[in-house]
Amino acid sequence: MPYAHITGWGMSVPEPVLTNDDLSKMVDTNDEWIRARTGIRERHIARDNEFPSTLGVNAAIKALQVANLRPTDLDLIICTSSSPEYFFPATACLIQDQLGASKAGAFDLLAACTGFIFAMNMAAQSIRSGSIKNALVVGTETLSRFMNWKDRSTCILFGDGAGAFVLQASDQPGGILSAVMHSDGSGADSLSLPAGGARLPATEATVHDGKHFVHMDGKEVYRFATRVMGHAAHEALDIANLTTDDIQWIIPHQANYRIIESAARYLKMPLDKFVINVERYGNTSTASIPIATVEAIEKGQLKAGDKVVFVGFGAGLTWGALTAEWSGPLPAGRAVHPEQYRRLARVRSLYRRIVRIIEGIIFGRES
Predict the structure, then answer these.
(1) Fewer CB within 10 Å, N- or C-terminus of the chain?
(2) For residue 297, how many other CB atoms are within 10 A of its CB?
(3) Is the pLDDT of residue 163 over 70?
């Protein structure tokens, strides 16, 4: 049975930055209040021409470059997002087309902020089963589009961005070691986007009542998160026959500094073993774990041979954890250039659309 290794990584965040001082001009809040309760100092906000797919593709290109893989080498693309581009088609399909990953199946996985852990587990299981060799997992968000900028309990928390991992099959031990996934739908109302689905389709009333914005019971989510984060990490460690002494790094979902502190106390681990960057990005939901991982690598913190725990929680309610032995890129041949495939993909996509139009005209006449 092959092992599933993380061999590539990349991140992409919009350039515009919204600071706490900027927010204080929009809503009744201030920098001190926000930082004391969340640890957040600033967050990145997508421009009008930036979407989950475009941010996701930028992160994916970087991850493929690290892994030295062509988009056409991919067998599977899983995109996880709390702010997908559309209900359907899947954002993963848009990413597949923009990358030029012509041989890859693609689908979206929705588990809110825990989605990246769930998607990593699904990709790893597919590799270990022998059904695929190369997978791309993308967490991408433009949650700023779903914020009520008059609600200080939510608008201060979230930011936009994307992160991506490449997973590859290898006969060398290591890679993804264990994972746990949990859910409790009885807490679904604690964190939700109420309208726009089949229960509350978009109407003038749902727009007027602000039902298309994120709604959150902050106290309940905080209690839930502080209860499950450390427990999930312990579960994943137990399955991998590891203890906290074996772990070099914990990379948690970056939702709130105080929640991360609580997890550290539960695990009886020092905070300097936790990768934390929530102060500069806020809660980027599914993108937070890969963004934090990329920065840990760039800073020289996460190295080959290190054992790491990824742990998160989110709406649903969902929570989970995953352990891995970090290896880095697999040995490869000559360098490839994934960016070139993106340029070719635009031409191929336009060609396929033209062909479909012509076929529609021809078969329409025949019928």
Answers:
(1) C
(2) 16
(3) yes
Any catalytic annotation for residue 58? no
Q: pTM, whole model, 2 decimals?
A: 0.95
**Token code pair at residue 310:** 């990824």
Determine the Cα–Cα distance for residues 321 and 316; give it in Å rounded to an integer. Answer: 16
User: How large a percentage of the chain has pLDDT more than 90?
Assistant: 89
pLDDT band at 367 (very low <50, low <70, confident <90, very high): low
Question: With the C-alpha atoms ordered 158, 63, 133, 240, is the resulting torsion angle positive or negative?
Answer: negative
Contacts of 256 (CB under 8 A, 6+ apart): 37, 38, 39, 40, 157, 222, 225, 278, 283
Q: Which of 79, 93, 113, 155 is catalytic?
A: 113
Max CA-CA distance within the chain? 72
Distance CA 56, CA 44 (A): 15
- How far is the C-alpha of 233 from the C-alpha of 228, rounded, in Å? 9
Structure tokens belonging to residue 62: 């970087």
Q: Where are the domains of the chain?
A: 3-325
pLDDT at 30 over 90: yes
Q: Is 113 a catalytic residue?
A: yes
Helix boundaries (H) for the chain: 20-24, 31-38, 52-67, 91-99, 115-128, 152-155, 204-208, 218-239, 257-267, 278-281, 288-298, 338-366
CA dist 73 and 8 (Å) reads 13
CA 249 to CA 231: how far, in whole Å? 16
**For 217-248, how does the pLDDT look when each residue is reduced to its tens digit (9 = 90+)?**
999 999 999 999 999 999 999 999 999 999 99
299: amino acid identity, one letter: K
Q: Does residue 365 have a pLDDT over 70?
A: no
Whether domain 3-325 has CATH 3.40.47.10: the reply is: yes
Question: One of 20, 68, 134, 283 is an active-site residue; which one?
Answer: 283
Q: Is the distance from CB of 136 to CB of 164 less than 8 angstroms?
A: yes
DSSP for 288-322, written as a single string:
HHHHHHHHHHHTT-S-TT-EEEEEEEETTTEEEEE
First vs last C-alpha separation in the chain? 51
